[in-house]
Amino acid sequence: MGKIQIHKFGGASVKDSSAVRNLAIILRNRLRNNCVIVVSAMGKTTNELETMLSLRMEDKDYSGNSTILKEYHLAICKELFPEDHVIFPKIENYFILLHHEFNKQVSKENYDEYYDRIIGFGELLSSRIVMEYLCLENLLVLWQDARELIRTDSDFRFAKIDWEKTRLNCQSQLKPKLDQFPVLTQGFIGADSKGRPTTLGREGSDFTAAILAASLDAASVTIWKDVPGVLNADPKLFADTTLFEELDYQQAAQMTFYGASVIHPKTIKPLANASIPLFVKSFLNPDEAGTKIHSTAQSVSIPTFILKKDQILVSLKVTDFTFIEEKHIHQIYEKLKVLKLRVNMLQTSAITISIVIDSQLFKLEKLLEQLNQDFEIRYNEGLELLTVLHPDMEAMPSLLNGYQVLLEQSTRNTIQVVRRRN
Ligand code: ASP
Ligand code: MG
User: Fold this and answer.
1) 304-421 topology per CATH
2) Most buried among 110, 184, 312, 375, by the most CB within 10 A?
3) pLDDT in the model for residue 2
4) Rounded to an integer, what distance in angstroms lies between the CA atom of residue 27 and that of residue 29?
5) For residue 188, which atom of ligand 1 is closest to its CA?
6) Of residues 147, 234, 225, 237, the one with CA closest to residue 192
């Protein structure tokens, strides 16, 4: 029996018909039994579904958005399939199911569970389309519902993996299929012990690839991206970038911690624990080496830039004429934990705690509600958090040109700046 390989294709790699064709070309020489293909939703589908969810929450009409989303998928299919192909009624069906879910009761209380029942439709649609297209191209693959494999707790939208059950599912259900055929499944989605759909956090498909790899004792994971590999900065935001030929797990994990979006933060740990190498490669130049993340990589310390947008800076001032103590920080972290908000940066002074968090629907409102008894709170929205690892001090000022700096923090190897465009 050959070694299992996992290939993960994100939204950009299936965003239109030529992208799907390209995926088939990439797989043509690589596909064999013992391959698992993990796909995300097509293009910006997940964002569109989130928009529809927001409209639904505000009791506004989302049917126009739904029609656009359906037309988007149908248009891709029209370019890939003959007119009478089974994919067309299948897509119609998925949208009927989607509307059925949308019509169910929702409130702020059950929102996360409701969200998880709906948001995974992007992955269901794309995995169907890609599977049918590969088969049409004589690349036979089996379709697998990831919710039958990835077992999680019931922490909707941020579900934690039940590693034991997931491993059992993978070994008993997936492995026998893989002995015969490649299998295609969805990233991002799982199910709890009652079979209710859950999700692993936005952009979680990379994590799915790592979970399956660990659960199947795979030989490698390859993530196919629209960049040449892991770069020292996002090429969409920075002009000059350098490719890392290799990274060790720790370096890669550190970059994802600060928000490097090339790999989902949770992806590295399961792979590192099982010493499974991770390749990050370009779907535009599939024969190029890309980046290999593994345990024996040479460490390199070139300046690395990570930008997180849509940040909120919250300043909490104690009002009882005491100074900031551990209990204040504890109190704030407790609330953040309940709201499932992560602190991207923290700074304390004598009477103020400043935290930087991602902007998320309802969350700021709830946080303020819960803390405004004990703190005087001010906040700024629409900010950027720039993290520079191994900074070149001389180049720093140019990064802040045209920006107002609201908060700054540096350690020996890291500078973090919260900035706003002037
Ligand atoms: N489609 C999901 C998202 O956009 C998962 C992923 O892309 O990894 O968040
Ligand atoms: Mg995506």
Assistant:
1) VC0802-like (3.30.2130)
2) 184
3) 63
4) 6
5) 5
6) 147
Q: How many helices (H) and strands (E) does the chain have?
A: 14, 16
Q: What is the DSSP letter of 236?
A: T
> How much is the pLDDT for 149?
98
| Distance (Å) of CA 69 to CA 94, 125, 363 | 12, 11, 27
Q: What is the pLDDT of residues 107-163, one digit of tens each?
A: 988 999 999 999 999 999 999 999 999 999 999 999 999 999 999 999 999 999 999
String of DSSP letters for 169-233: HIIIIIHHHHTTS-EEEESSEEE-TT--EEE-STTTHHHHHHHHHHHHT-SEEEEEESSSS-BSS
**Ligand 1 neighbourhood includes 265 CB (under 6 angstroms):** no
**Domain spans in the chain, listed from the N-terminal domain onward:** 5-225, 304-421
- 217 is written with which tokens? 């004792």
- Radius of gyration of the CA atoms of the chain, in A: 22
With a 6 Å cutoff on the Cβ, whether 205 touches ligand 1 is yes
DSSP alpha helices (H): ranges in 150-234? 163-169, 175-178, 205-216
Nearest partner of 15 among 81, 93, 79, judged by Cα: 79
Taking the C-alpha atoms of residue 257 and residue 21, their distance in angstroms, rounded to an integer, is: 33
d(CA 373, CA 379): 16
Tell me the one-letter amino acid at 314. Answer: V
Token look-up 């690349």 returns 139
Residues 6+ apart with CB under 8 A from 240: 233
The segments of the chain whose pLDDT lies below 50 read 1
Task: Let me know if domain 5-225 sits in CATH 3.40.1160.10.
Answer: yes
Q: Is 187 in the pocket of ligand 1 (CB under 6 A)?
A: yes
Tokens 């350690």 found at:
411
Q: What's the rounded Cα separation, in Å, for the pair 159 and 204?
A: 10
- Residue ranges of alpha helices (H) inside 217-294 are 249-257, 268-273
Which residue has a Cα nearest atom 7 of ligand 1?
A: 203
41 CA from centroid of ligand 1 (Å): 6
Q: In what order do the strands lie in the sheet with 375-389?
A: 345-348, 352-358, 304-318, 375-389, 414-421, 403-410
Ligand 1 pocket, residue 120 CB under 6 Å: no
